[in-house]
Design brief:
The complex is a heterodimer of chains A (667) and B (176). In chain A, strands 5, 6, 8, 12 and 14 form a 5-stranded antiparallel β-sheet that branches. The relative contact order of chain A is 0.08. In chain A, helix 9 packs parallel to helix 11 and helix 14 crosses helix 17. Chain A has 21 helices and 14 strands. With 667 residues, chain A is α+β, with helices and mostly antiparallel strands. Helix content of chain A is 48%, strand content 10%. Chain B is 18% helix and 43% strand. With 176 residues, chain B is an alpha+beta fold. The longest helix of chain B is centred in the first third of the chain and has 20 residues. Chain B has 3 helices and 9 strands. In chain B, strands 1, 2, 3, 4, 5, 6, 7, 8 and 9 form a 9-stranded antiparallel β-sheet that branches. The chains are: A alpha+beta (667), B alpha+beta (176). Chains A and B meet through helix 5, helix 6, helix 17, strand 4 and helix 20 of A and helix 1 and strand 8 of B.
């Protein structure tokens, strides 16, 4: 017993003669109907399910590494990070708990991501059913959402879990709201409203996008019509106040950074919306791995858009507003305009980000479009929906053709990009696990990696995954920067590269092993690398924390403490002079709070006997710049003396400590 | 339905708890630790030789050859006795038809540890061997760095974003 769309009917009216078996069959069918989109999701994104970590994942996995006390824990959980975001549940707690329990085993993280997505799909299906009164509409909405290529990163890259979790809170809150407006009693309605509020408030811990929920709730109650609609609408308004307070507080503690993430409230928002629309009904970036003429993708997007628009207009003109009394759908169903409201509300917060368009930003908004598409598909295939726009065979053929076109547009890109993501993550895994093995074989030596390319660097080196396994001294061979495409907005490749002179000295002292990372397994090439000719010029950049640079430092320095090195009141070093006039000497490091209690800490730098203009450290993390005299240009070696104004001696350390020095560089 | 949900939850909990018990932060993956020697002869298709290609070589094609850029550099082991007698450098290369069509002629020169090697010009497409004598004085170290330079190369284009010079198959140093 199925409806005309080939789906089991909603088991709401059991046969009295065989109540129990019928109920069991109906329950089984209902479960199968809810699980089918999840199975499709697993089928389509199984490479995402089996992917390892990459890029930003490592930054989040390390968020709990330096927690020593409760204050550190609170800072790790709630202090703004990564473009000022505060997502305690979906990023901080998720990664901290996951890493402390499972280390770098990605599977438990994936289970959580996919379980949340399965819940999201069930919610999309049930909400879609309630919005339209058609079970098949919910089913198709969930299927269309699964097919959409905006799912690639939320399901393939662990650090985008915030989107999946945010979707869960938004959908669950809406689910409770729908239950509340359809509740048979006031008491029941209030209970569901409470649940909705609870879910809404929790959602702020997943992503700041949660702030759009009041707009979604208000548009649902406003467009639903029927008895009590006005009251329901009024009861959503206090949630706007919560979102406004959240925005004010968020902006106060975490102002949006300028540049890449700057917000532009200009006409560019409409252009951004237009591009996001093409990524919503077509493939992300409007690209496909299939060789097709250039006009195919834009034309496909236009056809799908027109089909959706035609359905929307037909529904709006077709007397489906149940306030007019011609619609026999259940009281919780709503105008199709709600689908557009969801889309616009969910995408609105990212529209001002003109210079930072990201493929997964349509992941949540597109749910609204999927409900509309699912509705059109279900109506086309339903035999007798009151107020329906179906025109029999022709409507079915058109709906099926448009759905097939949509699948043709989005699925190849989803499959290809998921495969790419899986490949890159597998290379990163080989690298990190290979370095872990290299460290076990050579526990006292630093590790130098040769052959790192663009993909491997930005996904497997930049966020320093090796510190997660206690390795601070992993570097790239000199010249590696030539193989890696630069992205200054993401990071500086050269800060990971060891200077040739430092490498030569480390090889002579047998303090370093060199591995070739080009193949599937790391290959020890130390002997080959040692035989290669290299420059012997002193470096212009000295990573003071590294034990490999000790030969450049004077005897005053304290030994390296793995990822940092303390200086006493005065310390000296050798390095290359400036290569061009106008270059400065930069001193970067960290100054403990104790040193700043007495005010700014004066720093004096002397180069080749000449004292440079003095500077002072005013903050914990510092970088001071000292102008260099023109007479030093071209000098292969300069002698630098750094002196701080005072030292302190902590209770647990007998040493007189100045500051922690990270890097001293001429540039 | 409730039993099913309960069962799945229990199973997932057990699996996750079991994974959590193995609280090692990362698995290790075997590395190749045998010490390879630097080679005096390098085939472009040999992935282990890639460390000796310093720059200017594009990816391996057909498992046998590589396009170069206008400048390309490699390091070869100095053969036994070459510090006294000198050595012969041989570079097996192909000048492709497309390069001749676009550039008309291509001239290849080189330096070995700073010692200049005479250029050779190619006016027709085909396979060649660039052979030059390297003086003993340039071969005193364990290895020799050889910088090759073409006078012209095909610039990056819409069809291929790489700068393309010639095709190299193999390079070798033999003691005289």
């Amino acid at each position: 017993m199925t409806d005309s769309a080939g789906l089991p009917p909603n088991p709401a009216s059991p046969n009295a003669a065989s109540r129990k078996p019928a109920l069991r069959i109906a329950a089984f069918r209902n479960a199968a109907w809810l699980m089918a989109p999840s199975l499709l999701c697993l089928l389509l994104y199984w490479r995402g399910f089996t992917s390892w970590f990459r890029a930003d994942d490592f930054a989040w996995l390390g968020v709990g590494l330096y927690i020593r006390n409760f204050h550190d824990f609170l800072a790790a959980m709630f202090s703004p990070q990564a473009q000022g975001t505060i997502r305690p549940w979906s990023e901080r707690a998720f990664f901290m708990a996951g890493f402390s329990l499972f280390g770098l085993n990605a599977l438990p993280f994936r289970i959580v991501v996919f379980a949340t997505q399965f819940a999201n799909l069930a919610l999309v299906a049930t909400i879609g059913t309630r919005l339209t009164g058609l079970p098949a509409a919910g089913f198709w909405a969930a299927v269309f959402w699964v097919l959409n290529s905006s799912q690639i990163l939320p399901l393939g890259w662990v650090c985008v879990y915030n989107q999946v979790m945010c979707g869960f809170f938004l959908l669950l809150a809406l689910h409770f709201l729908m239950k509340a407006v359809a509740a048979p009693s006031l008491r029941s309605a209030r209970r569901y409203e409470m649940l909705q509020w609870f879910t809404f408030l929790l959602g702020f811990g997943a992503s700041e996008l949660n702030l759009v929920y009041p707009a979604i709730a208000a548009s649902y109650t406003f467009l639903r019509g029927g008895t009590g609609a006005r009251q329901s609408f009024r009861r959503t308004l206090p949630m706007f106040a919560v979102s406004l307070v959240y925005v004010a507080m968020h902006n106060a503690v975490a102002p949006r950074p300028p540049g890449y993430y700057a917000m532009h409230f200009t006409g560019a928002m409409f252009r951004t919306l237009a591009r996001y629309w093409t990524w919503s009904v077509g493939p992300t970036f409007l690209e496909t791995p299939i060789l097709v003429p250039k006009w195919v993708l834009p034309a496909g997007v236009v056809v799908v858009s027109l089909a959706l628009a035609a359905f929307l207009v037909a529904k709006l003109r077709g007397g489906t507003d149940h306030r007019g009394g011609t619609d026999h759908r259940p009281s919780w169903s709503v105008s199709p305009l709600f689908c557009l409201c969801w889309y616009l509300a969910a995408i609105a917060p990212v529209l001002p980000l003109r210079d930072h368009m990201t493929e997964y930003y349509v992941y949540l908004p597109v749910i609204g479009i999927c409900w509309l598409g699912g509705w059109a598909m279900a109506e086309a295939w339903s035999r007798s929906t009151p107020g329906s726009t179906s025109g029999g065979v022709r409507a079915r053929a058109v709906a099926t053709a448009v759905a097939a076109l949509y699948a043709f547009l989005v699925v190849p890109e989803a499959v290809a990009s998921t495969a790419w993501n899986h490949r890159v993550a597998a290379r990163v895994r080989n690298l990190v696990e290979g370095v872990a093995q290299a460290h076990e074989v050579h526990p006292t030596k630093s590790i130098l990696l040769d052959g790192v390319d663009t993909d491997l660097f930005w996904n497997g080196i930049l966020d320093r995954p090796f510190r997660l396994i206690g390795l601070d001294h992993v570097y790239l061979t000199p010249g590696s920067e030539r193989r890696i495409a630069a992205h200054p907005e993401l990071g500086d490749v050269s800060s990971y590269v060891l200077p040739p002179d430092v490498v030569g000295n480390a090889l002579e002292r047998d303090e370093v092993v060199v591995y070739d990372v080009r193949g599937p397994r790391l290959r020890n090439i130390t002997s080959v690398y040692t035989a290669m000719p290299r420059e012997t010029r002193l470096p212009a950049r000295v990573d003071v924390a590294s034990p490999l640079t000790s030969y450049l430092l004077g005897p005053e320095w304290y030994p390296s403490d793995e990822d940092h090195r303390w200086m006493p009141k005065r310390a000296t070093l050798r390095m290359a002079g400036p290569s061009a006039a106008g270059q400065k000497l930069y001193l970067a490091g960290q100054c403990p709070e104790e040193q700043l209690h007495g005010g700014p800490l004066p720093v004096t730098v002397t180069v080749e006997g000449g004292t440079l203009a003095p500077a002072a450290i005013r903050e914990n993390v510092f970088e001071l710049a000292f102008a260099l005299p023109a007479g030093l240009v071209g000098k292969p070696e300069i002698h630098v003396v750094v002196e701080v104004g005072r030292v302190f001696r902590p209770a647990e350390d007998p040493r007189d400590l100045g500051v922690v020095v990270g890097v001293i560089e001429v540039r | 339905m409730k039993n099913l949900v309960l069962g799945v939850t229990l199973a997932v909990t057990l699996v996750v708890a079991q994974m959590g018990c193995k609280n090692k932060k990362v698995k290790v993956q075997a590395t190749e630790e045998e010490a390879p020697r630097m080679a005096s002869s390098v085939s472009m298709g040999d992935p282990k030789a890639e460390t000796q290609l310093i720059n200017g070589f594009h990816g391996v094609e057909a498992g046998a050859w590589r396009w170069t850029a206008k400048q390309f550099t490699m390091v070869l082991r100095s053969p036994t006795g070459s510090a006294e007698r000198g050595a012969k450098l041989q570079l097996r290369l192909t000048v492709p038809q497309v390069a001749i069509e676009k550039l008309k002629t291509v001239s290849l020169s080189a330096t070995a540890n700073g010692s200049a090697l005479a250029p050779e010009s190619y006016t027709q497409a085909g396979e060649y061997v660039y052979t030059r004598e390297i003086p003993a004085g340039a071969l005193t170290g364990e290895s020799v760095k050889i910088d090759f330079l073409l006078d012209k190369a095909m610039p990056p284009s819409g069809a291929d974003l790489r700068e393309l010079g010639i095709i190299v198959l193999n390079a070798s140093l033999e003691s005289k």
